[in-house]
Amino acid sequence: MRAVIVAIGVAFLISLFCTPIAIKVFTRLKAGQPIRAEGPAMHQGKKGTPTMGGVVFILATVIAYVAGHLALTTLPDAQIAQVEPTITALVLLGLMVFSGAVGFIDDFLKVRKRHSGGLNKRGKLAGQILVGAIFGVVALYFPSSMTDVRGNATNTETVGSTTLSFIRDIPALEIGKIGAIIVIIMVVMAATNGVNLTDGLDGLATGASVMVLAAYGLIAFWQYRHWCADPNYTEAYCYTVRDPLEIALIAGAAAGACVGFLWWNTSPARIFMGDTGALGLGGLIAGMAMSTRTILLLPILGGLFVIITMSVVIQIISFRTTGKRVFRMSPLQHHFELAGWSEVNIVVRFWIIAGIGVAIGLGLFYSEFLAAVT
Q1: What is the pLDDT of residues 122-174, one digit of tens each?
Q2: What does the DSSP 8-state code read for residue 258?
Q3: Distance CA 98, CA 94 (A)
Q4: Residue from 43, 349, 318, 303 nearest 195 by CA
């Protein structure tokens, strides 16, 4: 727990104090956010606000991960913990960094062209597929070689699983490695686009992501405390995952970094996360679902992202089939803007929805554990 707390604190402080530096740097570089002319009129006043702020909390997460590992080196040798960096960290941080890199290219092209159209849809889609495929292969083809103090193998799991999962793996839903890689790619695409579509109002995606990441931090730490690699627990109610403490550490670091960034990103935003941050967070959240073996739980924990994404899907289908729009504008948050809601009201109320989804998801996770031990 100490290492997780250290990671959270370091990430928060780095993000809190380095974001103002990023604001000054991106302002000097004239890296302002282009605003769509067809968007809500109140957004025109945000034109020129620095973007690509996701760089700050992505770097803060990576640095905090290192700090957390330094704290782990002080733990007793007999305690089950991951002291050395693992494939799990490579996959999770890799998904965050490289998904963020796809978003950075998009942001860079927007700034360079002075237009809201950056990387084209095919280019962004190809980048998401490539990142998901690469780290999906790594997640499924590199099993753990962890041993206990007597040299006996304690955990030979891979980061990902060849079965679909809800609270844990569902043995009846075996899909094989190729099928699992395809699922991982789909989850990466869904999560990155979901967070990206939610990132339309000051602080909205950042605050919602904090809740989801915090939930995964709690899930992973609970799995670590009831881990099948620990001989103190029986298979009846332990979790067959790989490196749960590592997952909790990274989730905590990312959540802490986002809270520090939110200080500057809340209304009125001094900086936007841009596609750099949105795709980076989406990639990490997808990795969390995969590594904790809770892929089918993600739509509940990330319920706000699902609702906003579905509003876009519904709008497109309705307009193409009937020529009519269901919403004044999509994504959904802009519909309420045009209906006269203030930006702050929308953000707070959508945060409440995000919190409800997280609460339901955590409730389902814990209730399954209670049912298993009674």
Answers
A1: 999 999 999 999 999 999 999 876 554 334 445 678 999 999 999 999 999 99
A2: H
A3: 6
A4: 303
